[in-house]
Every structure is written in structure tokens, then in C-alpha cells.
Design brief:
The protein has 198 residues and is an alpha+beta fold. It has two domains: 126 residues, Pnp Oxidase, Chain A (Roll), CATH 2.30.110.10; 54 residues, Methane Monooxygenase Hydroxylase, Chain G, domain 1. The protein has five helices and eight strands. The strands form two sheets. A six-stranded antiparallel barrel has the order 1-2-3-8-7-4. Strands 5-6 form a two-stranded antiparallel sheet. The structure holds flavin mononucleotide.
């Protein structure tokens, strides 16, 4: 575990937008959701849309953990439901207690600052304070896994709007997940369809 200011590259959070599972807490109740961590021009940012539990927890606590995860089932499950407590470990460090995912390849805990609130979202700067590398996995890019991520993003929009355009995109990415993905990717797509009632 690293408590000097962590080098984000080492923990798998590079320039651009990294799709992570953000864990937060509210009165000891852990929460997890897929959230993009934005690294640009020497800054790290998060944009949280109003209405989510993550928004509320970060608004109140000014703290979040970005978990780097390669398990597509966690992406789908945490988007549409609450993960049960078996998914979490609780870390105690320097008077802080916070949840992380026990399946994370790595995680970085951030304090939020310079938070700006608009009518739609909160944007905060993220300052890394603790980090941990659990496992390194060498894996070639897989279009099936990426397709699950794309389908899940479109599913959140479909759920909000009911727009058929998103449904077509979900179906397109589902075909790709079946063609290129591994068993977990295919299962994750099935789970996504179940959550959407398709
Ligand atoms: C790959 C992916 C990335 C996402 N990135 C963000 C994001 O950066 N900001 C955000 O507010 N929501 C993002 N979402 C949507 C949230 O994960 C979604 O609204 C979730 O249901 C919120 O859960 P919560 O209420 O437990 O916080 C993303 C979803 C996916 C699938």
C-alpha cells in the first residue's frame, strides 16, 4: 500500500478517461458504481451527474476510491443494483475508513477539492492520497469486454430516456460481446438484458 502521493500510471489510471468502479460510503454503507476518472493536463477530475448515490456520497464526503477492475460482471451489476457487502473490503488508514472492492486489480483513494456544482452535475478535482496494487494481469485488448462497457453506458441512457436508438446500440454491442468476448463477457451481457427486462 502506498501513502506517498501515488503515481497514477503505476496503478493503471492513465491520461484520458479511465473507466473504474468508484466506491464511496455513507454512514458505513458502501456503494459502488462505474465512473470515469478524467486525467488531462496534469489534473485528475470526476464528473458526477445528479441523482446517483455516488453523487450524494461525494457531495457529502469529498472522498472516493477508484477501483481498477477487469471483471465485466461487476460493471453491469454495480450499474443496475447495489453490490452486497461480500464485494467490499474496508480499509483503515490514518483516521479514515473507506470501502474498496476486493476484486480490484488496484485502487486509488482520492480527496476531492475545488468542487463545482452545476444544474446537472458536480465536477471535482481529485488528489490521490492512498493507493494499492493487488494484482497485475497481462491481457490483450478484447472487443468483447469493451462492447460490454459500451452496451452498459448505452443501457444507462436507455433506462433514462427509453429511446430506441440506445436499444439498437445495445443490441449491436451485444452481438460483438457474443462474437469476441469470453464467458464472463457473455454472462455480463445476459445480465444486462435481464436488468433491462429485455
Ligand atoms: C462505463 C461507465 C462509465 C460511467 N461513468 C460515469 C461518470 O463518469 N459519471 C456519472 O455520473 N455516471 C457515470 N456512469 C453511470 C453510473 O455508473 C450510473 O448512473 C450508476 O447507476 C450510478 O450508481 P449509484 O446510484 O450507485 O451511484 C457510468 C456508467 C458506465 C457503465
Amino acid at each position: 500500500m502506498e501513502s506517498e502521493k501515488p503515481d497514477l500510471d503505476y496503478f493503471g489510471i492513465f491520461s484520458g478517461i479511465s473507466e473504474t468502479i468508484v466506491t464511496t460510503t455513507k454512514v458505513s454503507l458502501p456503494n459502488a458504481a462505474p465512473i470515469g476518472i478524467i486525467r488531462k493536463d496534469n489534473k485528475v477530475l470526476v464528473r458526477l451527474f445528479k441523482g446517483s448515490q455516488t453523487y450524494e456520497n461525494v457531495y457529502e464526503g469529498n472522498f472516493l476510491v477508484a477501483n481498477v477492475v477487469n471483471n465485466p460482471l461487476i460493471f453491469v451489476r454495480s450499474t443496475f443494483s447495489d453490490l452486497d457487502t461480500s464485494y467490499f473490503d474496508v480499509i483503515s488508514l490514518e483516521d479514515r475508513e473507506f470501502p474498496v472492492l476486493n476484486d480490484a486489480l488496484s485502487w486509488v483513494a482520492f480527496e476531492c477539492s475545488s468542487t463545482k456544482i452545476t444544474s446537472e452535475a458536480l465536477v471535482a478535482e481529485l488528489n490521490p492520497i492512498f493507493a494499492c496494487l493487488n494484482r497485475c494481469v497481462v491481457s490483450a485488448p478484447n472487443r468483447g469486454f469493451n462492447a460490454v462497457l459500451e452496451a452498459t453506458v448505452h443501457a444507462t441512457r436507455y433506462r433514462l430516456t427509453g429511446d430506441d436508438e440506445y436499444l439498437k446500440l445495445i443490441q449491436m454491442y451485444a452481438r460483438l460481446a457474443v462474437k469476441c468476448g469470453n464467458e464472463r463477457d457473455k454472462l455480463a451481457m445476459e445480465m444486462l438484458y435481464d436488468f433491462l427486462g429485455l
